[in-house]
């Protein structure tokens, strides 16, 4: 796992570590910014963007919240794994950025599938208190977001699995655009211009 450090001592993938990149997977906990950064990154690169949760909802014909309420987490994880397998198996002609749900990469089966793709897996991280604050400000239904204590426990349980990704990028105090610029620069897909707004 490499760690992005912004403009000070930035660590990039060496040429030997790179394979031709056609898909970038974004992973991380609730509130990490996978969807917002994914959209900004895809616009910057001129790539497509897909949120895996959107694919799950389209395949199942119901919302993530409904799946959890009506069928339970185990059924959701099955649907999630099926959707990820479908996505990876597609002969996609255009490159894309894919945002994964907070629990997707911590499932061993999913992590193994993603590892076989040789695509970069970028862990978007932030202090747990900031992640909880972001989630409180959102109008998004998150079935596993409960009280702050349980939120922290789930984050601490999942974080070691996220660290198995290719890169870790700290998002605290950075704008969405600034994080997208940093991710692109670290992967060497485009040159990091150092742009991006002030922290929000």
Would you mind describing this structure in some detail?
By secondary structure, the protein is α/β, with parallel strands linked by helices. It has a domain at 2-9 and 22-49 and 96-187: P-loop containing nucleotide triphosphate hydrolases (Rossmann fold, 3-Layer(aba) Sandwich), CATH 3.40.50. Helices cover 46% and strands 12% of the residues. The protein has 8 helices and 6 strands; from the N terminus they run ββαβαααβαβααβα. The protein has a 6-stranded parallel beta sheet with strand order 1-6-5-2-4-3. The chain starts with a strand and ends in a 13-residue tail after the last helix.
Key words describing this protein structure:
single chain, 200 residues, alpha/beta, Rossmann fold, six-stranded parallel β-sheet, 8 helices, globular, disordered C terminus
Order of strands across the widest beta sheet? 1-6-5-2-4-3
> Count the helices. How many?
8
Q: SSE order in H/E notation?
A: EEHEHHHEHEHHEH
CATH top level label of the domain at 2-9 and 22-49 and 96-187? Alpha Beta
Give the biggest beta sheet.
Answer: 6 strands, parallel
- Architecture per CATH nomenclature, i.e. the level-2 architecture of the domain at 2-9 and 22-49 and 96-187: 3-Layer(aba) Sandwich
Low-confidence stretches: 5-10, 191-200
Helix content: 40-55%
Number of strands: 6
End-to-end separation = 27 Å
Strand content: 5-15%
Rg estimate, integer Å: 16 Å
């Amino acid at each position: 796992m490499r760690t992005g450090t912004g403009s000070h001592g930035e660590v990039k993938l060496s040429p030997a570590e790179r394979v031709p990149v056609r898909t970038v997977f974004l992973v991380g906990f609730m509130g990490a910014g996978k969807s917002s950064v994914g959209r900004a990154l895809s616009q910057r690169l001129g790539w497509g963007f897909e949120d895996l949760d959107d694919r799950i909802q389209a395949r199942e014909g119901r919302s993530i919240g409904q799946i959890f309420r009506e069928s339970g987490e185990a059924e959701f994880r099955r649907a999630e794994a099926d959707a990820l397998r479908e996505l990876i198996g597609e002969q996609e002609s255009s490159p894309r950025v894919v945002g994964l749900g907070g629990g997707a990469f911590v499932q061993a089966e999913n992590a193994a599938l993603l590892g076989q793709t040789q695509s970069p897996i970028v862990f978007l991280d932030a202090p747990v208190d900031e992640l909880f604050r972001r989630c409180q400000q959102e109008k998004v239904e998150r079935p596993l977001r409960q009280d702050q204590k349980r939120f922290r426990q789930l984050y601490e349980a999942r974080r070691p699995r996220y660290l198995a990704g290719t890169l870790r990028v700290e998002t605290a105090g950075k704008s969405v655009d600034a994080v997208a610029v940093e991710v692109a620069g670290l992967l060497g897909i485009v040159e990091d211009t150092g742009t991006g707004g002030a922290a929000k």
